[in-house]
């Protein structure tokens, strides 16, 4: 965690409230947020030339921030004045226990210290072959030409990939588990977004079902840990679970089985949907921009041809990476990062009261016209190396920043780079005409209602 910068004056007593957006007298902006969160947040940010605007959700005060400076102040410079927020913690704890998406303070710092080295740029290339093999296997099973929903397909494909990366296993043929996963994620979304937000112990039918589903998933992953312990394989690291089992704290001890379970589930949950949505948006944007798609195909043909893509090829496929990064600029999967002020503080000289919910709006941050020319246009050349380096600090944050920055960012970027290349190499994808696709924010930003396409395996 970074600490409050001593150079920032704490002018709390004199600080004015931030500019306020007027909402309904009773509900504030609660209804708009429930109906269409991303449009509501983007609308609020549009009214905030300084990148900060206050509003209410019912009686609760909230602010939305959307400029590089305001975002960095919340996530880095004054990070100690904010925590994740009660709602997120309540929604994630039942499935993810005390994993990195829930823990705070010294425990969180200790866990990051031993987990991050296993996801470093030096470590992640060992996962490249698995990612490519899983993607190729998945595609090969399609009977093409076929009409598919790319959102659903990317969801299943990334589920297969992440289950292999973490557990060297598959959840494919386990129908009960697949249903439990889908329903548990749905419950999480409901807990994150519903106005009432009843905790899991309240005995509603929805909660009872959620408890069963969570127990099914946790039992499935516990079994991997138990089997490896029993077989004496707990220090082998062919997959991420193996790494987590072999890693040691400073005093030489390892993680307890219950924490291992929490961290494995957290990595699994944090990586699957984000990667699926990023890839679905990438395919959608390639489908709507034939000139970009043509450049991607040309790059692959020139540098790789028909053989299997390998990690060593990635340096020669810069445009594929630019496409993936630009897709995450326009549609960052984690479009909204929530925080809550844990004490009275200030932000850009405005007062922020303890308890205020803070929405980091990456969707609008990535569309700042003073940073990105013609921000609505899909233009992967923005991420050409020298232009990317010239971006102001904090202007492009698909993985967040500060003490909670995504530990899986290197893995996610490598996976996105590989999948963009492999899918373009193996498939021709034509979007079906007449679709009206909009970004919809549940936990992540997803193309809604789906992306219907005709896919055909290239011979
Ligand atoms: C395209 C893919 C991904 C995106 C867009 C993404 C985005 C993010 C963002 C924005 C955060 C910060 C949340 C915050 O500040 O509250 C985060 C946190 C996290 N991500 Fe990722 N992520 C991706 C893939 C992954 C992968 C592959 C893994 C693990 C293998 C992972 C594991 C995590 C974990 C454990 C956290 C919590 C970190 C903490 O609070 O200390 N993510 N991710």
From TrEMBL:
Stretch list, region Disordered: 1-21
Domain of life of the native organism: Bacteria
Cited InterPro entries: Cyt_P450, Cyt_P450_E_grp-I, Cyt_P450_sf, Cytochrome_P450_monoxygenase
Stretches with biased composition (Low complexity): 1-15
PANTHER family per UniProt: CYTOCHROME P450 (PTHR24305), CYTOCHROME P450 12A4, MITOCHONDRIAL-RELATED (PTHR24305:SF166)
Family stated for the protein in its record: Belongs to the cytochrome P450 family.
Name of the protein described by the UniProt record: Cytochrome P450
Organism this protein belongs to: Streptomyces viridiviolaceus
């Amino acid at each position: 965690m970074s600490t409050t910068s001593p150079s920032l004056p704490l002018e709390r007593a004199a600080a004015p409230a931030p500019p306020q957006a007027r909402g309904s007298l009773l509900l504030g902006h609660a209804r708009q947020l429930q109906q269409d969160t991303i449009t509501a947040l983007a609308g609020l940010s549009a009214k905030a030339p300084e990148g900060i605007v206050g509003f209410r959700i019912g009686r609760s005060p909230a602010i939305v921030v959307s400029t590089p400076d305001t975002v960095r102040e919340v996530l880095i410079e004054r990070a100690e004045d904010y925590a994740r927020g009660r709602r997120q913690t309540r929604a994630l704890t039942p499935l993810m226990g005390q994993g990195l998406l829930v823990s705070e303070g010294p425990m969180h710092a200790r866990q990051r210290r031993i987990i991050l080295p296993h996801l470093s740029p030096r470590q992640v290339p060992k996962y490249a072959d698995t990612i490519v093999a899983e993607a190729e296997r998945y595609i090969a099973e399609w009977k093409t030409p076929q009409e598919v929903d790319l959102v659903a397909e990317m969801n299943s494909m990334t589920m297969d990939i992440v289950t292999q990366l973490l557990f060297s296993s598959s959840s494919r043929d386990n129908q009960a588990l697949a249903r439990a996963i889908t329903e548990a994620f749905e419950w999480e979304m409901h807990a994150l977004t519903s106005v009432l937000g009843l905790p899991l112990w309240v005995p509603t039918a929805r909660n009872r079902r959620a408890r069963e589903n969570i127990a099914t998933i946790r039992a499935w992953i516990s079994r991997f840990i138990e089997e490896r312990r029993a077989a004496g394989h707990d220090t082998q690291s062919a997959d991420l679970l193996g790494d987590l089992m072999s890693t040691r704290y400073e005093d030489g001890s390892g993680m307890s089985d219950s924490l291992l379970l929490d961290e494995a589930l957290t990595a699994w949950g944090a990586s699957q949907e984000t990667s699926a949505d990023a890839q679905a948006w990438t395919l959608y944007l390639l489908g709507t921009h034939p000139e970009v798609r043509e450049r991607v195909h040309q790059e692959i043909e020139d540098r790789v041809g028909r053989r299997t893509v390998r990690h060593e090829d990635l340096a020669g496929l810069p445009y594929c990476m630019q496409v993936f990064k630009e897709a995450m600029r326009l549609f960052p999967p984690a479009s909204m990062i929530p925080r809550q002020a844990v004490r009275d503080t200030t932000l850009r000289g405005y007062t922020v009261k303890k308890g205020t919910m803070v929405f980091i709006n990456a969707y609008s941050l990535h569309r700042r016209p003073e940073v990105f020319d013609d921000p609505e246009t899909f233009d992967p050349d923005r991420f050409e190396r020298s232009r990317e380096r010239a971006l102001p600090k904090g202007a492009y944050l698909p993985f967040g920043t500060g003490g909670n920055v995504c530990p899986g960012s290197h893995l996610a970027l490598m996976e996105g780079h590989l999948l963009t290349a492999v899918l373009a190499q193996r498939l021709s994808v034509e979007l079906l005409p007449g679709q009206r696709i909009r970004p919809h924010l549940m936990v992540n930003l997803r193309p809604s209602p789906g992306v219907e396409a005709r896919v055909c395996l290239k011979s």
